[in-house]
């Protein structure tokens, strides 16, 4: 089973997997693309996972449920399209014979969650919604910088080969910002070139990996000397005594970038 990104809207991905008979989709903001994918693969929808309440992640749930009778699993602390099974930090759910652990990752929204499976066809998988992007992170619509930094730190602690399945094709824009923060990061420069080539070919830049993000994503590199220096240069009067304060400066900088 390999996670597959179904394009939606202008830059969303609805992640999907199947075992040859049953399928899983994550954050279906619309239903048409999912229904077309199910038909092309010849599988039935078994489960819908939801990471947070924003309409571009939930808008297709009602139609998919009515057409497929799929079960829906989502966060305990967010307004969700009922009915659904609500899950909280540390809970586990069994989907397609795989066990996913729920990780609370508040920041983008107050009750945002991620789903992590340590072994899908020999490699871990993380469905992280709008918390961690390749080269970036989600905006803080409801949470605080402290919450988002803590959430990203939890994700960064996952195994390096974990596939990072986030839900927007924001990579090129994120890498432009990352290069402004760390212009001398050789791994970042190489990755930016690879991603530009992929997009030129019309291919997704995702999934990424935890190891890659730790090497190139400034929001996971808040203790690196060059990142700290960039934050201090950007906001010379702010305190940058710890990684959390560096993160706060980076997030505000990215908002205006």
Please, could you describe this protein's structure?
The chain has 257 residues and is an alpha/beta fold. It has helices at residues 32-41, 55-58, 61-68, 145-156, 171-181, 186-200, 210-216, 225-234, 243-256; strands at residues 4-8, 12-18, 22-26, 44-49, 71-75, 85-87, 92-95, 98-104, 113-120, 123-129, 132-133, 136-137, 163-166, 208-209. The protein has a six-stranded mixed beta sheet, with helices on one face. The protein starts with a strand and ends with a helix.
Q: Key features?
A:
35% helix; 6-stranded mixed sheet; 257 residues; 14 strands; 26% strand; alpha/beta
Shape: globular
Average per-residue pLDDT, rounded, comes to: 97
Strand content: 25-35%
Q: Count of helices?
A: 9
Main beta-sheet annotation: 6 strands, mixed
> Widest sheet: strand order?
1-2-3-4-5-6
Order of helices and strands: EEEHEHHEEEEEEEEHEHHEHHH
Roughly how many Å is the radius of gyration? 18 Å
Give the N-to-C terminal Cα separation. 38 Å
The low-pLDDT segments are none
Helix content: 25-40%
SSE class: alpha/beta
Number of strands: 14
What is the secondary structure topology, with strand pairs?
Elements: E1 4-8, E2 12-18, E3 22-26, H1 32-41, E4 44-49, H2 55-58, H3 61-68, E5 71-75, E6 85-87, E7 92-95, E8 98-104, E9 113-120, E10 123-129, E11 132-133, E12 136-137, H4 145-156, E13 163-166, H5 171-181, H6 186-200, E14 208-209, H7 210-216, H8 225-234, H9 243-256
Parallel strand pairs: 3-4, 4-5, 5-6, 10-13
Antiparallel strand pairs: 1-2, 2-3, 7-8, 8-9, 9-10, 11-12, 13-14
């Amino acid at each position: 089973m390999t996670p597959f990104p179904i394009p939606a809207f202008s830059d969303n991905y609805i992640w999907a997997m199947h075992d040859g008979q049953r399928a899983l989709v994550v954050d279906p903001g619309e239903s048409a693309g999912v229904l077309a994918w199910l038909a092309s693969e010849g599988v039935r929808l078994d489960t819908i996972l939801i990471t947070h309440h924003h309409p571009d992640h939930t808008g297709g749930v009602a139609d998919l449920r009515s057409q497929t009778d799929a079960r829906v699993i989502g966060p305990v602390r967010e307004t969700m399209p009922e009915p659904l099974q609500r899950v909280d930090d540390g809970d586990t759910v069994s989907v397609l014979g795989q066990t996913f652990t729920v990780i609370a990752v508040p920041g983008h929204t107050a009750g945002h969650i991620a789903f992590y499976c340590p072994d899908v066809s020999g490699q871990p998988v993380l469905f992280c919604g709008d918390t961690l992007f390749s080269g970036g992170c989600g905006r803080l619509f409801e949470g605080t910088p402290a919450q988002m930094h803590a959430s990203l730190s939890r994700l960064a602690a996952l195994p390096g080969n974990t596939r990072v399945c986030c839900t927007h094709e924001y990579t090129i824009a994120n890498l432009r910002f990352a290069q402004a923060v760390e212009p001398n990061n050789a791994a970042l420069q190489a990755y930016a070139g690879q991603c530009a080539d992929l997009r030129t070919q019309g291919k997704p830049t995702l999934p990424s990996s935890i190891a890659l993000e730790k090497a190139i994503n400034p929001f996971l590199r808040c203790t690196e000397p060059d990142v700290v220096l960039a934050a201090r240069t950007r906001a010379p009067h702010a305190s940058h005594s710890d990684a959390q304060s560096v993160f706060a400066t980076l997030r505000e900088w990215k908002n205006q970038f």
